[in-house]
Amino acid sequence: MTQVEHLTVDDARWDTLFERTRGAVALCYQCGVCTALCPWGQVREGKPLSVRSLLRRAQLGVPDDHEDIWLCTACAQCESLCPRGVPVAEVFQSLRGMAWEERRVPKGLPSVLWSIYWNNNPWSQPPSHRSRWAKGLEVPRFDPSEHEVLYYVGCTAAYDRRAQKVARALVKLFQAAGVRFGTLGDEEPCCGDAAKSLGYTPYFEEIVQNAAQVFAQNGVRRLVATSPHCFDTFRNYAPRYQADFEAEHYTQFLDRCLSEGRLRFSREVPLRVTFHDPCFLGRRNDEYEAPRRILDAIPGLERVEMARSRQDALCCGGGGGRMWMETSAGERFANLRVQDALATGVQVLVTACPFCIACFEESVKAVGAPNLRVMDVAELAAMAIE
Q: From the CB of residue 196, how many other CB atoms can be counted at a distance below 10 Å?
């Protein structure tokens, strides 16, 4: 006899979710486009992430014990073609928030938030080491009377050794362009992306408000961020808390330096490359051209497109808090993305996000492609200046 699943509808739960998503969850009319587009369907044979089903259960107020709410990478692939404009990632974050309140979260995630609380970063690293990435470089403390921009390094570029190379390349580029910049050193605040992605909204709001206050106290009116995740937070969420500053991703800033003649590339970089669009730079903030214009300005560099690019680019798998959760080796989006790059015959897979770099370098090893290098736009650009 076929077993029938019995569902208990909880109207109070639905009311809470409706309020937290400002009614957006009610827009879904179950067309299924989200499930069809979700990248998990490409790596989980026979068991894709049924986004449609999760949204329907949410609309019914059915308590959700599924681990699937922790799979979303917030890549916005489903949102890009949703006919109703449902902010799916936001709904998932709200569901995660309710799971926190009910103490139903994957093991290890509380330590990420505790690290932000105690260390001002999710990497469990000492706050006093935040500026060690700049050892040996001339990186001044931000002074609003002298500097045009604050360089916001971010937690990942400050503590992750691979991402530190990107931060150092950016310093070289800023100096070559004559940019008057400074950092906040060890006093730089966390942006809170990890807390937002994991669904702990109240703490995220506290972190963002604190960052806005730190920037205001230091006279920051304009900042340039290494990571698209930090950029997204400061561009799209900080203004909700009366933050009075402008945020740019570094590719946007360098692109403008090139157009204004402040930055020039004089050395040839004879490489064949392809660019991967980070989800939080592309689909989430509609910036596809700035990184490509920078690459195209480098002498000797040949850029080719992958079959899936711009709005259709496949997620690396590191967003939506997935950087802090384990993903089975056979279910990593980045493996497929590396194969996309290999199909173009390039030497370098280029991106502009520290999370993407981390995911791709792991997948290059997993796929067995030792001749494919993973680099950041900033690293290639730094190779092209004297």
A: 25
